[in-house]
């Protein structure tokens, strides 16, 4: 069925989605179950994805990227999710949050040195910001970098780092000064550095195929030329990518909900109970009608906001809304889909079971639902809202 | 060698079409795609170019302005430029009229080879390739699962009833693609971005001076109807019952 939001897309967007979908259906889908259960996928997949150019969305052509903006990224996620594995899609995209500081405040030389290799799928990059004592509250970052000649010496701990167990480069947020925000700096630390201790992949509710790490930095010496931008510039650089990260998380939500809806519809037509298909019951039809309403409204809203970002508009409020609407849609629709599948929906063999676990992170990761609400409230000029 | 790849914009076969009250296709749910078989021919053309056997690939389409999307898709796969013979009446042009229009494009472009799908998945006529070969005097190799160029010849492996056969043709030739010819690539993102900048020429069919009458198309579309609903099958419990049903219900015995 042709969906309502399609009018916001041009032929380039549609082609990108098609390329991502075909890549996902050829390379991911046949292996999704196995990779999810194994908690990992072959590193080689990055190279194959790079050949299609999918890793380069949002990066300039002179750095080996494919260009494009928010809608391109949304299309990419929509297409890749057709592989049926949030974990793999996330794993292929960790550089989308790890590399932007290089784009925003890195030197030309640093960009040339680090970005093309990642976009070619040869190197993997991860963003290391969250700490045991600092999640949404980035100002609470305690990992310290002390200057020692032409090196920094890094001491501290990072947690829940997506792609962290096998990333070659860690875009690491460190404290070089005491100012809560102005004292934060990015260092690009090779995982192979002496003193970097990476845990085994953490065991999670969902996103199994994507590895998540706990990383300790024990007196790690990092050359000064691996500092990205000046000291104290990290917080703003981090903020600058929030809108893209959140609109792409909204896309994950929309895709998760849309696939769960399709699965639920297929199942409800096939499955018979009390002498008729599930769709023969009004309660099923109404449930699916609600699910479809949720999916379509989340999708139209997300695409509309992405298109506005691509026109260069300031849409912090709406991006935060999109993230919440879509994350909520994913949680609700996957919940309903599992309910329609009944016992089978609780079995690991079904896609809706996996999606329902994967969806749970969406209101948490990349800025929690509560933080989004604070931002929306602030943008609405509500008194008492933070900052 | 220059290759012309003929492509068609068709209703996405995966879309479940709906009809409007006046028996027309409901446009609100229609989606269009590059005809599957033409994807194989474009892919083959790109491979011939990559192997050095071809130097330029020109994508040709007869269709409405919207068909630029399908041409761009082929350009994104690796073709060099596009030609759209623009008409809003493409659905009303019969195979021979289309072949005559394409023959004029062939006359203008003088390709060494024309590659096209063996049929379009909407009309399923399987006729334009053969007619085009006849009109241009080109050799023809149809239902190709293999297409090997060697100097001024091409060897086409064909799928025929009961097996396969090879024909060796002297170029120029028309080759129509079957399913097993290759595995079409999906366009890469750099390919998609580059496709935007590749030249796409729009031609008025009247300017081609073909021996056709576009004001009186041979096809008039009176309306569409969905195939009749199939009745549920029946499981019989004996051979006698089966024969009885075949005789008295299906009336085939």
Could you name the CATH class of chain B?
Alpha Beta
Q: What count of helical segments of chain A does DSSP give?
A: 13
* CATH fold title of chain B: Rossmann fold
Low-confidence stretches of chain B: none
Describe this structure in words.
The complex is a heterodimer of chains A (387) and B (253). Helix content of chain A is 48%, strand content 14%. Chain A is an alpha+beta fold and 387 residues long. In chain A, the strands form three sheets. In chain A, strands 1-4-5-8 form a four-stranded mixed β-sheet. A four-stranded antiparallel β-sheet of chain A has the order 2-3-7-6, with no helix packed on it. In chain A, strands 9-10 form a two-stranded antiparallel sheet. In chain A, a hairpin with a 2-residue loop joins strand 2 and strand 3. Chain A is globular, with a radius of gyration of 21 Å. By secondary structure, chain B is of the alpha/beta class. Chain B has one domain: HUPs (Rossmann fold, 3-Layer(aba) Sandwich), CATH 3.40.50. Chain B contains six helices and eleven strands. Chain B has a nine-stranded mixed β-sheet with strand order 9-8-7-10-6-1-4-5-11, with helices on both faces. A two-stranded antiparallel ribbon of chain B has the order 2-3. In chain B, a hairpin with a 2-residue loop joins strand 8 and strand 9. At the A-B interface, helix 1 of A face helix 2 and helix 5 of B.
